[in-house]
Amino acid sequence: MTVCLGIICVLLLVFIILQHISITAERESLFKSNKNTVQEFNQTINSLQHTELMTEKDQLKNNFNSLSQKKLELETRVNDLTAEENQLQGSVDSLNQKKLELETRVNDLTAEENQLQGSVDALNQKKLELETRVKDLTAEKNQLQGSVDSLNQKKLELETRVSDLTAEKNQLQGSVDSLNQKKLELETRVSDLTAEKNQLQGSVDSLNQKKLELESKVTSLSDEVKIKGCKEEYLWNPDGLFISDERKSWSDSRQYCRDRGADLVIINTEEKQRFISSLVKEFVWIGLSDIENEGNMKWVDNSPLRQGFWERNEPNDAGRNEDCIELNPAKPVLSNWNDISCSVMRKCVCEN
Ligand code: MMA
Ligand code: CA
Known about the structure:
Blueprint: H1 2-49, H2 54-227, E1 241-243, H3 250-259, E2 263-264, H4 270-279, E3 284-289, E4 298-299, E5 324-327, E6 337-340, E7 347-351
Parallel strand pairs: 3-7
Antiparallel strand pairs: 1-7, 2-7, 3-4, 3-5, 5-6
Helix pairs in contact: 1-2
Bound molecules: methyl alpha-D-mannopyranoside and calcium ion.
């Protein structure tokens, strides 16, 4: 656009200059021809002074007049051309004015173009950035496409797995049904066995009753033997005694001894009571309890207690919860037993 405007201005200038040159040339040629005519005329007058032909002089005078007329006309023409030139000069001025305006406009447009160039540069920069971004996004898209493909693969695998598992589930459902059937059968069997067990329990109870009767018979028989003066022999071996190294409840302590081929100690002589009291340094369980029958103290071999070495006011079944017997070596040697809750944690004395 700027270039076009420049070219138009140049063409206008060239046109104006050519016009001016042609007008000036025309005016000069008119002046020259006029001057020549006057010189010619003067020469003619001079020559006429030497001639006698006055008529010719008159004629020449007439010619002169007509030439003067011609000269006036030419002067008028020159004036007209001068006016025309002034007019053209005005046009040139206005064109110059126009040209200045166009130059200003061109400058404005150039500034605008520079600004636009800046915008174009920024847009190009932006375009480059966007191209980079597009490239990145394309790479990302390809990566995601890869992920999608692998996920689709995974999905297919999972679908296969689901159908496998469904088949397996149906198979298991079949198993469950057959197991339920089996369970019903077993429940019937369990209730049959429970009935049988209850029956057997009745038998056990009656046998226990029988056993108790027999035990009391044995006791009374042994008392009878005592009364008859037969001295009982208490055989015990000090080397068969040992103290546990862990604190446990009475039942767990008993199991501890049993695990080692022994049982909780039975103290049925004063000698043994003295020996064990001197052996232990803290509370210990001994093999005596009334767990089975409150108030009926029994040793772990089911023999009844004949001689106890109780503390004062013991056994008292405090809180109605004391069925197991501890020995406290800090108390006097022949009165150091106490009944206490079987769940208390104590070391114990075992005997094998
Ligand atoms: C008291 C006494 C005993 C009982 C214990 C229980 C310290 O002795 O009442 O008979 O067995 O408490 O801790
Ligand atoms: Ca007690």
